[in-house]
Design a protein that fits this description.
single chain; Rossmann fold; binds nicotinamide-adenine-dinucleotide; 8-stranded mixed sheet; 14 strands; 6-stranded parallel sheet; 17 helices; alpha/beta; N-(1-d-carboxylethyl)-l-norvaline Dehydrogenase, domain 2
């Protein structure tokens, strides 16, 4: 099939590449000329495992091309995906200006029947707005479909190629059939393509992300209760997770969720509910718990250096010239995405308290530098960040941080203190080695 993808970010680029890989001819379009120039020159602007190789192969096979030319993208395609950003507006609701601008542009350049597929995460009812945006510029026939994306950054190719399910919201049988044909190669193992109405498809995406965010805030709250009671969240988590009704997924305490999806999608759903006179009490609490969670680790660090109890709130006093090593900056492993990363809140609190921060991340330093400039010392190696450090703070659970050489680390550090924001390490072993150890929800 002939496909265009409007918006060549994380979702658009992965979608376009994977659809090309399954034999379609795909045009990836973006208004950002720099991004398109980079892609044309063979440079992939984001870090996503496996993506660069797939792009190269499909470009070489002439199934994938990049352009800023909307007319070319629209005229050459039967199915046009909209995968532009939907950032939060001032009140938390999703800002649809990019989606609707793309809709109008598609309408302007239409030259025959098209299926316009909304892949961006958009509030319930946006399908109708996209239909109106396209129709405002054309009299030709088209259908609007909602096809929310569930990929995870860091595992995006696998998620797209082997989805748990494909959700299609369509009110036209013709469009639904085309979408089923398009996705057939990805569901050969029998995973379902779920056809539903457009509103339900739009809601499915928000409900899924809200559920996952709820699990994270729930376990973080349990961890905080454990810490105050003297219970150990790791034992509790295992005791819970073996119950098949609960399971282990998304049941790891940490430094709060971040990224470009959970924070904005939870906020947007709260706002959508409010507009329809529903008070989304659980979701508001999920958000509030997450905001608090990003400060749990800085509270522990400041408390430690001020000699306060682990459970005590931090004194407002400055930290002084302490050197703090930070491992992990991206909001999760295997991505360079720094959007809403908890590391930003944690590091800013340390900097405000007067600390010197030496940070390492396997791939996100370039993105992190845009945020912190020269306020943070970035190191190319995780051990280098430990030189003269008064403490190590582990923020993101990259695999390379899981089994470090603790003896070597102790030699490099000024003081052997670890704040383990992801409960990666065995606290008994570390204490035997002479470390002072703090975890999340551990005593
Ligand atoms: P992104 O910011 O990485 O990319 C969006 C791209 O759209 C940018 O390159 C931007 O230049 C381009 N763009 C904006 N307006 C345009 C226009 N009028 N015409 C052409 N291009 C335009 O965003 P993303 O992370 O890929 O997210 C896109 C959507 O997918 C969002 O709604 C997001 O919530 C959703 N989503 C994201 C993820 C994820 O993990 N990132 C997962 C599932 C769903």
């Amino acid at each position: 099939m002939k496909i265009s993808v409007i918006g060549t970010g994380y979702v658009g680029l992965v979608t376009g590449t994977c659809l090309a890989e399954s034999g379609n001819h795909v045009i990836c379009m973006d208004i950002d000329g720099n991004k398109i120039d980079l892609l044309k020159s063979g440079t992939v602007p984001i870090y996503e495992p496996g993506l660069e190789e797939l792009i190269k192969m499909n470009v070489a096979q002439k199934r994938l091309l990049f352009t800023t030319d909307m007319a070319l993208a629209v005229k050459s395609s039967d199915i046009i995906f909209i995968a532009v950003g939907t950032p939060p507006g001032e009140d938390g609701s999703a800002d649809l200006k990019h989606v609707l601008a793309a809709g109008r542009e598609i309408g302007k350049h239409m030259n025959g029947y098209k299926v316009v597929v909304n892949k961006s995460t958009v509030p319930v009812g946006t399908g109708e707005k996209v239909r109106a945006a396209v129709a405002s510029k054309t009299r030709l026939a088209f259908d609007v479909v909602s096809n929310p994306e569930f990929l995870k950054e860091g595992a995006a190719i696998d998620d797209f190629m082997k989805p748990d399910r494909v959700v299609i919201g369509a009110d036209s049988p013709r469009a639904a059939e085309l979408m089923k044909d398009l996705y057939a190669p990805f569901v050969r193992t029998g995973k379902p393509i779920l056809i539903m109405d457009i509103k339900s498809a739009e809601m499915t995406k928000y409900a899924s992300n809200a559920m996952l965010a709820t699990k994270i805030s729930f376990i973080n709250e349990m961890a905080n209760i454990c810490a105050s009671l003297g219970a150990d969240i790791d034992s509790v988590r295992k005791g819970m997770g073996h119950d098949r009704r609960i399971g282990f997924e998304f049941l790891f305490p940490g430094v709060g969720y971040g990224g470009s999806c959970f924070p904005k999608d939870v906020k947007a759903l709260v706002q959508t509910a409010k507009e329809h006179h529903v008070d989304a009490k659980v979701l508001k609490a999920v958000e509030a718990v997450n905001e608090r969670q990003k400060n749990v680790l800085p509270d522990l660090i400041l408390g430690h250096f001020h000699g306060a109890s682990k459970k005590a709130a931090p004194p407002g006093k400055p930290l002084g010239k302490k050197t703090i090593a930070v491992w992990g900056l991206s909001f999760k492993p295997r991505t360079d995405d720094m959007r809403e990363a908890p590391s930003v809140v944690i590091i800013n609190r340390l900097l405000r308290a007067g600390a010197i921060v030496q940070a390492h991340d396997p791939v996100a330093i370039g993105e992190a530098r845009k945020i912190f400039r020269n306020r943070v010392v970035f190191t190319t190696d995780c051990y280098e960040a430990l030189h003269g450090a008064d403490a190590l703070v582990v923020v993101t659970e990259w695999n390379e941080f899981r089994t470090p050489d603790f003896r070597k680390m102790k030699r490099l550090m000024h003081k052997p203190v670890i704040f383990d924001g992801r409960n990666l390490y065995n606290q008994e072993e570390l204490r035997k080695l002479g470390y002072t150890y703090y975890g999340m929800g551990r005593t």
